[in-house]
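Friendly challenge for the regulars: who can give me the structure tokens for this chain first? No prize, just bragging rights.
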Amino acid sequence: MIEQFAEHLAVKGLSERSMKSYLRYYRHFDNGLKDQDLNQSYINSFLLKYSCNTSRAFLKHLFEFLKITDLKIPKLTGRKPQQKRRSLTKQDVKVLRQWLYTNKGFRYLILFDLNYYCALRRGEVMAIKIKDFYLKEWAEDPTKSCKLLIHGKGNKERFVPVYPKIMHNVIKYVQDQKKVAEDRLFAFNYTIWHTAFKDAVKNTMDYNFTLHDLRRSRATQWINDGIDISRVKTRLGHSDISTTQVYVNLDEKKEFDKWAEE
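First reply, four minutes later:
Bragging rights claimed.
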């Protein structure tokens, strides 16, 4: 049955990451049915145990696969308290870059720069292949940014510019590692990058920044620099501008001062 469910998901064109998550929840769901019947009570109990958006999305796909119409996925009501995340300052970025380069090595400096300056998701930066850089086009004028193709969430593609200074580091790294077009730029898994970044944060910051804060902080910087939110939406690869609005932390003091002057 799990193989048939996997085929059902694959036909939908879901990302590999989403499929792995749904199949993991399928196993949890299926194991619980050894002692219980599939009824509304079981669905409710499952959601109490696995209370996240991914588990609810899994159930939606499962109901469709099994053609279940007599059971419901209870809607979430009420609002969770919004915890405001701090954004990295330019000084924070400088400190983290230096620590990573000194203590972890050259490749982590490049990882940080691509993750932050291009505002990429962690999965996007780890998936970059050498062929995704438009190197021939960039070689005509290396003083300009290089076009980079990003394979985003939900198999959506977009282009981001990579600043010349970062590109020169990328080229040096590619040559040192003797990589070819089909190779991934970073041939290791996300956990290694996550661990290195958390070490940098632990040793230099007074706040528990996450990798996702790199992308969100960059978006916030763009907004505070006066870039229209619709342009920021495009840069981040968001489908809905409401998602972008949740990302950013406006400079509240600057906004207050402007309001007070009106």
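The mean pLDDT is 89. The chain has 14 helices and two strands. Your move, everyone else.
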